[in-house]
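It is worth pausing here to work through a concrete case rather than discussing structure prediction in the abstract. The textbook approach is simple: state the sequence, then state the predicted structure, then interpret. We follow exactly that order.
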Amino acid sequence: MAEIPSFADEEEAAAWFASHDTSPYMEGLEAVAEPIPVLRSAGRKTPVGLRIRGDYLDALKQVAARKGIPYQTLIQMWLVEKLRQEAPELLDR
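Step two, the predicted structure:
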């Protein structure tokens, strides 16, 4: 039976579940009886252009592949992580 991997945080878990088929893991999951509140993001995403060195992009893609997520998701996760460290008052308004 396949096991769901461990995650460093909720964002990593959300990215993994958004990009993987969970049907191979269903037998190992337990049913949840209580309601689970779901919070939806109010902000819309805006595409941006970013020039980045090719070797950096290659490294990002390799790390993302190891995590099983798209590299754009990895970039966004890391940006949000750094913003939460440096300027938490600017987020989640």
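Step three, interpretation. The radius of gyration is 16 Å. The first helix runs from residue 10 to 19.
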